[in-house]
Amino acid sequence: MAIETSCDETAAAVVENGTKVLSSAVASSVELQAKYGGVVPEKAAREQVKSVIPVIEEALLRVRPPRGSDPRQFIDALAVTIGPGLVGSLLVGIETAKTLAFLWQKPIVPVNHLVGHIYSVWISPPSNQPGFPNIPSFPALVLIVSGGHTELVLMKNHGRLKEIGSTRDDAAGECFDKTARILGLGYPGGPAVAKAADQISPISQINPIRLPRPMLNDPSFDFSFSGLKTAVLKIWQGSDPREGPTLTKNQAAHEIQEAITDILVKKTLTAAQKYKVKSILVVGGVSANKRLREKMFLNLANLSPWPNFSKLYFPDLAYTTDNAAMVGAAAFFNYRPKNWAGVGARPSFSLE
Ligand code: KG4
Ligand code: ZN
Q: How far is the CA of 208 from the centre of ligand 2 (A)?
């Protein structure tokens, strides 16, 4: 059984063999965040204190097929996210997991949240590409794109990860969230920008703006998104609606989505080619983005193929944003249990 409380979600799940999700429950304080336009750490943690036990109960009750009423009979180990994340939020999940490990006399496996996101691909149902392996083969290149992180990771095997690039300022999801806020599109920004962008038909309407693509041609695999936010702010504040129809919210959203996805796709595919990986994984909240998925597939198809490449993977939509099932899968494939007393929060836990 896995518990995840690193940011604003409170999640619990029961996972078998690292691939089969027997149950998954997620409670989100998204309404609270919408009110404040983002996550307020103190408020998030207080919500999590209230919801963690009900969410765990729900995950245990929803196990399919049913395994009986005593969790000690069918739970072999506990897994919990210990970082990176908000310290108050992390502690809620960690203390709960430690208490259960002590009570049930089960081992507990600490999990890095980013590693958790990577394993969202292992728990996804078979994709619509028959004939390809459903489990990624190594070496794999992973793009982790969420509200807090944008990283390119070379994965040689389970437990053998090397970061080859990351954002120097804002994360891609953060860029969606902040630009959505500038445009007044609501929270969370990613889905809001995507929805507005969808209103624009690329053929019928020529977009009146062109945003920069920061670091697109930089030889490193690092990213930078804060300039994009500033550019949107300048353009949007400069376009006074009283001066007539200049730029609509939908047009701005469309170009924001194009700029962010152009950067993510180019960097990822360039790295994949350089390291001649066998699979590419795109995970995290932003991997839910339809345009990102479409562009990644299109651009990959246009590349000259390299030997051994097999497949591009995205998680099932249910597992793109924070959940505990991915944490359970990560713990299974990286099974290093600890005594409960030695488990603590690591708010700035890095990948290596
Ligand atoms: O992985 P996640 O739930 O939390 C973190 O670990 O950060 O990611 C949340 C992020 C938010 O920034 C949200 O705006 C973004 O993922 N997101 C999207 C979409 N759905 C969620 N961004 C673009 N398009 C989407 N469809
Ligand atoms: Zn996350």
A: 34
